[in-house]
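Entry 14. Ran structure prediction on the chain below.
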Amino acid sequence: MTEHVLEYRWLLPATLQDAPEGRRSAVRRSTRDWIVDIAVFLLSAGLGLITADEVHGLVGATEPIRAIDQVVGALACVAVWLRRRWPVGLALVLTLVSTVSNMASVPALVALFTVVVHRPFRPMALVVGVNLLTLPVYLQLWPDPTMPYAMEALVSVLVLLVVVGWGMFVRARRQLVLSLRDRAERAEVEAAFQVTRARRLERERIAREMHDVLAHRLSLLSVHAGALEYRPDMPPRDVARAAEVIRSGAHQALQDLREVIGVLRLGSGDPEDGGGSATAGEAASDRPDRPQPTLATLADLVEESRLAGTEVEFDLRVGDPSGVPAGLGRNAYRIVQEGLTNARKHAAAAPVELTVAGGPGEGLTVEVVNPVTGGRSVPGSGTGLIGLTERAELMGGRLEYGPAPDGRFRLGAWLPWPE
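Output, C-alpha cells:
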C-alpha cells in the first residue's frame, strides 16, 4: 500500500510533502508545483486580457484607468509566483489591489485559493473577510451596466464561496492522502515488528524444547559415562550396554541439534540462506516434524530413566492417557522430563516419586519429588525451571518448585484441562 501512495507523491505540492510547519517557504517546487504555477500564471494573464477591454468606470478617465489597470494586473499576475512563499500576505495585498484593478481580480482569487488549501482556518477567515469587506468598493468602482447591483453582488459572493469551497475540498483530499500514506507506513512498521516478534517467540519456543530434550539426553550420557569411569570392573555386558546408550544418545542429540540449526537458519531472514521472507515458525512448518511426545509416552520416559539407574516410583492417575489433548500432554511430558533430568543431575542415586493425576475440567497435576542430595552432581545452566515456569504460564497454568516440608526437593505443576 505504501508503494501505491508514494508512487503519486509527486502529485502533492511541495508544501505538503516533507517540510515542517514554519519552513515550507524553503521547500523547492516539485514537478507538480511548476506545472500548476505555469498554468495559473497563463490562466490569470489570459482572463486578465479578456477583461481588459471590458473595463467600466468614469467615462472621462477611461484610457488612463485602462492603462493603469493593465500595468497593475500584469504585476499581479507575476506576483502569483510568490503565492507559495507568502500566501497570506500576498492574498491580502492582491485583495486590496484588485479593489482598484479589475485585471488583478483573477490573481487575487488564485491567492485566496492558495490560502484556503495551505493555511489553517484563522488566516483563511482573515483573507475571506477582507475580500467581503472590499467587495462593495470594487462594485462601486467597477460596476457592470448590464447587471443590477444586487445581482452583481450575489454573483461575486458566489464566486468567493466557490473558490473557498473548492480550496477546502482540495485541502481535505490532500490531507486524506497524507493520512493514508502515514497509515500505510505505520502498518508496514507494525508488520515488520510482528514478524520480528514472531521470530523471537518461535526461537524462544525452540530454545525451550531443545533445552528440555538435550538436557535429558546429555544427563543420560553423563550418568552412563560416570558409571564407566567409576566402575571399570563392570561386566562386559553392562559395559556394552552403557556404551550403546551413550552412542545412541549422542546420535539423537546431534540429530536434534541439526534440526534446530536448520530451522533457525531457514528462519533467520538472511538472503544468502533463502530465509528472507519466512519466520522460524514458517520454516519449521515446512519440515516434516518428528512425533511429538504425549502423556501416553511417559512410561517410556520413566523406563529410560530406570535403565539409567534412577529408581522412579511412577503413579499415573489419568483414565485414558492417549485421550489427553496433544498440547497438554506435550507440556506435561516436558515438565516430567526436566524433573527427572534434574533428579539425575543433583541426586543420581536417590529414588524419585512421580505423580501425574487429573481429568477434564479439573486440570492435570504433575509432581516430581526427590531428595536434595545423593550421588555426584552434574553442572547445569539453571534455566530449565525458569523455562518450565514460562511454559506452564503460557498454558494458563502454574509451576512451583523448592524444598518440601520433609526436606526433599519438590517440583509441582498444574495445567488446565478443558472439559
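Confidence is low (pLDDT under 50) at residues 1-26, 56-61, 269-288. Will compare against last week's run tomorrow.
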